[in-house]
């Protein structure tokens, strides 16, 4: 593993342990060249995923990008980082289990919305407002009106 501070290729693992949910290995590393310490996470990837964007572009699935958008939706809400990590792990596993390696971005957004709807209603509406590109207050009204329907 390359040191993020100095670029040295020879770093040493000082400590390894499973993460809280057991889906990753957390490693504390030390760089003998610059003396800095840093943490890495090792996750199992069943297969490489490609996201098919609405404009036709194909981009690699970016777990960090998805995590950032979920964290923004959950900001200042009673959803802790561990819960967000479990949400991410669940969505990634479901995507990896699908038969197609190319996943439409719309499918990913729907998975996030379905999950957030059961976790926190405010986070759900926040995510939906960006995902569905709300531009006016009436967009929120129409969306919120649909929440009351069975």
N- to C-terminal separation?
51 Å
Strand content: 15-25%
Q: Structural class, please?
A: alpha+beta
In helices, the fraction of residues equals: 40-55%
> What does the radius of gyration come to?
19 Å
What is the N-to-C order of secondary-structure elements (H for helix, E for strand)? EEEEEHHEHHH
Q: Would you report the number of β strands? A: 6
Specify the number of helices. 5
Q: What general outline do the C-alpha atoms trace?
A: elongated
Spatial ordering of strands, largest sheet: 1-2-3
Q: Average pLDDT value?
A: 86
Structure description:
The chain is α+β, with helices and mostly antiparallel strands and 150 residues long. 45% of the residues lie in helices and 20% in strands. The chain contains five helices and six strands. The protein has helices spanning 63-74, 81-97, 105-119, 121-131, 137-148; strands at residues 12-18, 24-30, 37-43, 50-52, 58-60, 102-104. Strands 1-2-3 form a three-stranded antiparallel beta sheet, with no helix packed on it. It has a three-stranded mixed beta sheet with strand order 5-4-6. β1 and β2 form a beta hairpin. α1 crosses α2 (81-97). The radius of gyration is 19 Å and the shape is elongated. It starts with 11 loop residues before the first strand and ends with a helix. The model has no long low-confidence stretch (mean pLDDT 86).
């Amino acid at each position: 593993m390359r040191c993020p501070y100095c670029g040295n290729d020879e770093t040493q693992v000082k400590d390894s342990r499973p993460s809280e949910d057991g889906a990753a290995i957390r490693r504390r590393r030390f760089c003998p060249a610059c003396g800095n310490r840093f943490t890495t996470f090792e996750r199992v990837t069943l297969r490489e995923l490609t996201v098919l964007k609405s404009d036709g572009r194909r981009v690699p699935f970016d777990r960090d990008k998805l995590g950032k958008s979920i964290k923004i939706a959950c900001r200042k809400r009673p959803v802790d980082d561990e819960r967000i990590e479990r949400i991410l792990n669940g969505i990634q596993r479901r995507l990896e289990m699908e038969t197609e390696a190319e996943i439409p971005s719309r499918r990913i957004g729907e998975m996030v919305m379905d999950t957030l709807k059961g976790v926190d209603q405010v986070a759900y509406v926040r995510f939906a407002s960006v995902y569905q590109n709300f531009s006016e207050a009436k967009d929120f009204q129409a969306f919120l009106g649909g929440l009351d329907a069975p």
